[in-house]
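Incident log, entry 3
Record: DNA ligase (659 residues)
Problem: checksum mismatch between cached and fresh output.
Input:
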Amino acid sequence: MIIKDRILELRKMINEANIAYHTEDKPLISDFEYDMMLKELNELEEQYPEYDDPNSPTKKIGGGILDEFQKHTHSTPMMSLGNVFNEEELRGFYNKVNKVVDNFSIVSELKIDGLAVSLIYEQGKFIKAATRGNGLVGEDVTQNVRTIKSLPLTLKEPIDIEVRGEIYMSHASFKKANVERLEQGLDLFANPRNAAAGTIRQLDSKVVAKRDLSIFLYAIVNAKQYVQTQEELLKYLKHLGFPVNPYFKVAKNADELISYISEYDDLRKTLPYDTDGIVVKVNELSLHEMIGYTAKSPKFATAYKFEAEKQETVIKGIAFQVGRTGVITPVAELEPVLISGSMVSRATLHNEDYVLGKDIRINDYVLVHKAGEIIPEVLSVNLDKRTNQEPFKMIDTCPVCGSHLERKSGEADYYCMNENCTGKNVFSLIHFASRVAMDIESLGEKVVLLLHDLTYLQTIPDIYKLHLYKDELMELPGFGKKKVENLLDAIEKSKTQTFDRFIFGLGIKHVGAKVAKLLLKHFPTIDDLMNASFEALIDIHEIGEQIASSVVQYFSNEKNIEMINELRSFGINMAYQVQTTKDHEFSGKTFVLTGTLESFSRDQASSIIEKLGGKVSSSVSSKTNYLLAGSDAGSKLRKAQDLGVYVMSEEEFKEKTNE
Ligand SMILES: NC(=O)c1ccc[n+]([C@@H]2O[C@H](COP(=O)([O-])OP(=O)(O)OC[C@H]3O[C@@H](n4cnc5c(N)ncnc54)[C@H](O)[C@@H]3O)[C@@H](O)[C@H]2O)c1
Ligand SMILES: [Zn+2]
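Fresh output:
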């Protein structure tokens, strides 16, 4: 490609990324990819000044302005910062400054990953807040900023002052906001920065207040009126009552500055909010004007960017997940690898275009990072390690129901259009786990929806594979170690659930809880049931043609058999046992019956109790363990209540006896 075309291409891609990131708060590429493109463009423009353009993104601040907000013209521009990416480049920055001035020190501060705002105070009272926007003009977000709890609305001194800082969202608030978005069926925020920026540009201040934003201040407009150095400035802000990040350090020279980097990198991993680097600034304010500015940023300060953690691993396979809308997402199954403190064994591949664009193949060595806080993503392929991998091919039928997939025009995604696709139908999963079926505590509707949206759950067998993703689950919004352990325990426990609940949980048409039990009395194992003929089924007194044909149809579907065999391999109980004596809680207990039972005669109820090892007696005494009470119970009920005998309803009796 000729240089000029590359320059134009980079400008176009960067401009597009800027709009997605700054105006729509929805990044398309990683910050690292963005930074590398901008760096390449900067270098090309320096080398080939003949292609210079005052509108190049290297000379402009990337932010947009939403029409919904009043515009605010900044008293002095809000600038960006240059970037350096390693020690050598940081030394380069230091040396450049040193060519213009000497006898200076450097303040280093954490670079808080949020969005910049300018705040105006008059007579010590908060008056106005504005976003950076395009650097010259920003959005008036006063009402929203007012909701930030840690921001003082009145300062310790009644002065006129304009200060600048970073609004950010803590990890805890970020997770909370994303849980809410999931519940509302909205797209997740990609990371806390986008969540903070999206929130501050919300039209409804009440929503902003709920999101719990935070702020650190780090600059004063016309600071020399108040202080001499950046260090004094930070202390003065604190004195006025502003939140100031406590981790700043002053270095006398480049070596000292560089010695701080690894300390900061260790520190930041322990903080409850995101930082993406260190900002270094010449400490002496009187030197700033001498050192000067570029079109976009000061030359007396720069940002040292930490490298986001990336790890290399192998793609063992590519699975396809069906979303609630029917959208098909390819997911890379990885050789597990530790990234930013947790094991990652799967990563999203987004869609066909993404995979083909990066030419990602099974058995490739790839670089993986965590996009935002949540979803691991494959960044690139290590082509040096490629042997003879087959190119990726998108599937054309639904991995769950087998229907033909459609790619809508103008979209990168394929969809399963089958309305009855169980992959789309999260409700079949919700039903399976629910109290009335397998009764997997902790796997309620909300959790199923979340895990389905995040592609961990697709089909029933996926429930029993969740333990493979324990580490990843603990990182999810709204989850923690305890919650995940409870969930996995409950899933494990459900393997011994009674077989009739399992059959009911499968959601076979017309097979409710009662019918499931009835079927199993005649066909007590999964093999018996799978092999039951239509004739044998309708031979059962209460089973009609509708149920019989539905059962036969269900078990003649290859996909269902595969699924059941997979579940069987996980050790799920697939045999029906009428519980007998010793192990049943009725064993050795004395019952008295009273009132009218709806579903049984007294004789039937008595024989059930006896079969389970209990005794039935005719009068209530202190030796009675249970009074089974139907409707219109009379004196026996009163006596039982007086004696404190447990009164069991017919409902509970049915549940406990599985009848
Ligand atoms: N992923 C994408 O598509 C995409 C697109 C555009 C921009 N970006 C990201 O945004 C960056 C560009 O944005 P930018 O122009 O705001 O530059 P920047 O974020 O790299 O640096 C400038 C900003 O740093 C912030 N900051 C945080 N702590 C600070 C401190 N202690 N002192 C001073 N400033 C501090 C301020 O908001 C300031 O405006 C890129 O480097 C990239 O990482 C990503
Ligand atoms: Zn389907």
